[in-house]
Design goal:
By secondary structure, the protein is an alpha+beta fold. It has helices spanning 9-15, 32-35, 55-70, 74-86, 91-100, 103-109, 116-124, 158-164, 202-209; strands at 128-130, 133-134, 147-150, 176-179, 184-187.
């Protein structure tokens, strides 16, 4: 499957805000937004002075931002949207719940990784198990009652040990619980809209795909 391999800081600069794709670096003066708060490319500085964006541009930016935050490509994102339409309730909220239910996002939310891209790497490298079985698919969707844990054989890996140093200081959303001693977490329920702290206007995404 294709994967974005360019500098992720360009994505933050394009959206004009921090997407927290590089963990602790995003909180330091080295953050690209702090140093170059304008879009990348030859005309990046000039883009700060453009006229007001159209409705389509706002809808596109909302969709692109959600894709970049969760690390999802267009085909998969569109598939998630179609699934959200089939579910009961608000399509936009359903979409965010699906994105939050991805295994790589859950690993990040539990504090086992410092960013979603790092969480995707942790999953891909086979360090995660769900209900006692190894799962190395970042897009795997968890459900209430699932137990997500670092595999016993991976707990001595350098990245895992580094991330576990101050694990107790990282907040866990209400729909998850975490056991720092066993490096495991449980999905208590599906997230509600108020549990999702990503600043995304999901209604704009619905409008984009409803054109």
């Amino acid at each position: 499957m294709a994967r974005y391999n360019d500098a992720v800081c360009k994505l933050c600069r394009r959206e004009g805000e921090k997407l927290f794709l590089k963990g602790e670096r995003c909180m330091s003066p080295k953050c690209a937004i702090e140093r170059r708060p304008y879009a990348p490319g030859a005309h990046g500085r000039r883009s700060q002075f453009r006229r007001k964006e159209s409705n389509y541009a706002l809808q596109l930016r909302a969709k692109q931002k959600a894709r970049r935050v969760y690390g999802v490509f267009e085909r998969q994102f569109r598939r998630y949207f179609r699934e959200a339409e089939r579910l009961r309730g608000l399509t936009g909220t359903n979409l965010l719940v699906i994105l939050e239910s991805r295994l790589d996002n859950v690993v990040y939310r539990l504090g086992f990784a410092l960013s979603r891209p790092q969480a995707r790497q942790v999953v891909r490298h086979g360090h995660i198990e769900v209900n006692g079985s190894k799962v190395d698919i970042p897009s795997y969707l968890v459900k209430p009652g699932d137990v997500v844990a670092i595999r016993p054989g991976s707990r001595k890996a350098g990245m895992i040990q580094d991330n576990a140093v101050d694990l107790e200081h990282r907040a866990v959303p209400d729909w998850l619980s975490r056991d720092e001693r066993s490096l495991s977490g449980r999905v208590l329920s599906m997230p509600r809209r108020e549990d999702i702290d990503v600043a995304i206007d999901e209604q704009l995404i619905v409008e984009y795909y409803s054109r």
